[in-house]
Amino acid sequence: MIDFVFGGFGAFIRWIFVYKCNSKKMAESYNSNTMQEGIKNNLVGLLLIPIAIIIGLLIK
Could you list the residue ranges that cross the membrane (predicted)? Predict the structure, then answer.
């Protein structure tokens, strides 16, 4: 379940910032490196969610 949340959030962030909302380019890289792309998404989600929480707490 946690992997799903981090992976989904990471995929969304990478789709916006890395692939510039280009779904075709993202699909091509997923088809060639499925395991590596999944790991990258999990890491992005794992790093950005706590950072966003900390920044939110500091702003509040």
Answer: 6-22, 43-59
Residue of 6, 60, 57 lying closest to 41 (CA atoms): 6
Non-local CB neighbours of 45 within 8 Å, separated by 6+ positions: 5, 6, 7, 8, 9, 10, 11, 13
Q: Across the chain, which distance is largest between two alpha carbons, in Å?
A: 43
Neighbours of 11 (CB within 10 A): 20
Can you give the length of the chain in residues? 60
Overall average pLDDT of the 13-40 stretch: 90
pTM of the model: 0.74
How confident is the model over 31-55, as a mean pLDDT? 89
